Amino acid sequence: MKKSFLFRYAMVLGVSILMFMSCFFLFFSSPVSADSGRLHEMKGYESVLIRDGDTLSSLAYSYAPVKSHMSENEYLAAVISLNNMSSEYIRAGEYLLIPDFL
Fold first, then answer.
1. How many CB atoms sit inside 10 A of residue 29's CB?
2. Hey, is 97 helix, strand or coil?
3. β-bridge partners, 46
4. What is the pLDDT of residues 51-77, one digit of tens each?
5. d(CA 60, CA 75)
6. 59 burial class (0-12, 13-18, 19+ CB within 10 angstroms)?
7. What is the largest CA-CA distance in the chain?
8. Beta strands in the chain (DSSP E)
9. pLDDT bracket for residue 23 (50, 70, 90)
10. Which of these, 33, 101, 92, 12, lies nearest to 65 by C-alpha position?
11. Beta bridge mates, 67
12. Which residue has the higher pLDDT, 75 or 28?
């Protein structure tokens, strides 16, 4: 009699623990999508005419929220890399490639 009680108690306890763990992982795990590792993959680019008063920082400030999920500094680095720039100096009248990550 005592063995069957202990066996039932262990089974109920084990099933309860498994159910609790399943619910815990179900509610507290973050969703994963197929794109989650590809957030910073460039989808294309746009050619933009540089106007008087434009700076790389101002362009990054304008385009980062619209064209990416990056911070302005990350987006600025992407612009510099895409355009193979050795400095952050730009001139009005030139064209600059603006990456699109969305």
1. 8
2. strand
3. 98
4. 999 999 999 999 999 999 899 999 999
5. 6
6. buried
7. 92
8. 44-49, 95-100
9. low
10. 101
11. none
12. 75
The span from the CA of 89 to the CA of 27, in Å, is 49
Q: Give the span between the Cα atoms of 73 and 79, in whole angstroms.
A: 10
Q: Give CA torsion, residues 85, 91, 93, 99, to 10 deg.
A: 40
Residue with tokens 């794109």: 35
E-strand ranges in 23-94 read 44-49
pLDDT tens digits along 80-90 = 999 999 888 89
**Is 0.70 surpassed by the pTM of this model?**
no
φ/ψ of 68, rounded to 5, equals -160, 175
Q: At 91, is the secondary structure helix, strand, or coil?
A: coil
* Rounded-to-integer distance, Cα 44 and Cα 38, Å: 14
Q: In which band, very low, low, confident or very high, does the pLDDT at 4 lie, cut at 50, 70 and 90? A: confident
In one-letter notation, the amino acid at residue 42 is M
Predicted confidence at residue 16, as pLDDT, reads: 80
